[in-house]
Prior knowledge:
The longest helix has 14 residues, at 122-135. α4 (122-135) packs across α5. The chain is of the alpha/beta class. It folds into two domains: 2-119, Alpha-Beta Complex (Quinone Oxidoreductase, Chain A, domain 1), CATH 3.90.180.10; 123-217, Rossmann fold, CATH 3.40.50.720. The model is unreliable at 188-210 (pLDDT under 50). It has helices at 12-15, 42-49, 115-119, 122-135, 152-163, 175-184, 203-210, and strands at 2-5, 17-20, 30-38, 65-73, 85-89, 98-102, 107-108, 143-146, 167-172, 192-194, 216-217. The protein has seven helices and eleven strands. The strands form three sheets. A five-stranded antiparallel β-sheet has the order 6-3-4-5-7.
Amino acid sequence: xxxxxxxxxxxxxxxxxxxxxxxxxxxxxxxxxxxxxxxxxxxxxxxxxxxxxxxxxxxxxxxxxxxxxxxxxxxxxxxxxxxxxxxxxxxxxxxxxxxxxxxxxxxxxxxxxxxxxxxxxxxxxxxxxxxxxxxxxxxxxxxxxxxxxxxxxxxxxxxxxxxxxxxxxxxxxxxxxxxxxxxxxxxxxxxxxxxxxxxxxxxxxxxxxxxxxxxxxx
Length: 218
């Protein structure tokens, strides 16, 4: 099969190499899937640079999450059949035609999401959900400010905040990113400011200018 591999550490655009590698074989509790969609997350960038806490030996295939179609199941796997569409983390990297997943942690792909959307759902939205609900205990009617609102976790947090009934303010670092955030956000009136207003020394200005008391910040 073909896979994007990192033979040496560096910037992804410089070190990612398309290579022919053996097809993976599912072990006990694992499923082999055909990759339908794989998200490019910041941990993938850090792994390519050698700056992530997980440092796989070279060469390796990045890609921490995916949407895939089951090809075969390893010993001991029940309740999953070839053709099932799953989301979850990859064993051995998702930037490949085939990869492995842990059957116990893989989830059915939401039918309302296409392959690309489902491929970016497992880690991004789970991270935002735990941050907003397990840690911050976000409640309906509260005001939530989301940094990096056009990024992966940020854009997910914006949508999760809206779904929870919060008034969401998005902050991004530039006009191009702001357009992405505006499409996801914004509470009535379209309140938005650029990132330079939320540097630590400007936080009093942030609250004074907006006239908003923040309940939660992510």
